[in-house]
Amino acid sequence: MITERIDRVTGIPQKYRKAFLPPPISVKIELTGRCNYSCAFCARGQMLRRQSDIDREFFERVVKEMKEAGVEELGLFYLGESFMVPWLPEAIKYAKDIGFEYVFLTTNGSLCSEKKVKACLDAGLDSLKFSYNYSDVEQFESVARVKPKLYGKMIANMKSAFEIREEGNYKCHLSASYIEFDGDQGKRMLEAVERIKPYVDEIYALPLYNQAGFVTKQEEKMGMKSTVGNRGRLDNLRDGLPCWALFSEGHITWDGILTGCCFSHTPDFDFGDLTELTFMEAWNSERAQWFREKHLKKTIKNTPCEKCFVAAA
Asked: Could you give the CA distance from residue 240 to residue 298 in angstroms, rounded to a whole number?
């Protein structure tokens, strides 16, 4: 179950509760920083960083390096929409061929056509999750800030992915998550969840993140209320400190930066540049250990992480 895997990472196993660490359980690597949505709860639309696609040679080098280091799970996404990358199925196949037992992907669902999904399943994708954050087409248009017709396309693509999996007897786990923007969103999502229940194995809710404070003002403007830090999924919230993103999961941007934040739009959270350092050198860099020590002592005042807590206070 995807929720079991999420809980394992966000729970920060005991052996990860120190400054100098073994390789993380999971790593998300960004194939592209681009996205065809402009969601109000995401800072990507503010263009705080350059957005392009990962160099394929670098991708293959660092993924192999991570596998050899002992990383168990690989997510082929971070802040962008990976279905915008033509060679996504080849990236999946490469990861599977070098030995990753679990390769996962999250998508907004609008671009994963029947042909693309089948290619990903043929390549060996283990988990495909849809970000299904809108109760109806009106909310979709308001929050995602794209053409409303994509709402129906997203649902149609979920149905298509399910049919492809069933007909081809693929082992890929299908799931969906949604964000509870405020106290009423959970109720608003009840009918929306019923629409897609037949097409996914699992559906779970997430709290609203403020992404280091970068989207707080626009969230509040829309009546949304964010949580402190990244506390995992709504049914099993973790303490905000220490933040699991520093300890049990790595995040790599399309331009090769290993960052300590699950929503890093600026260099403030950088551990190291993987075009110059090995993965493990960056994972245990002085900067990485400094962040972890602050979180373990719960003394994040005057650190970049403070923004995440002040913004949601």
From this structure: 10
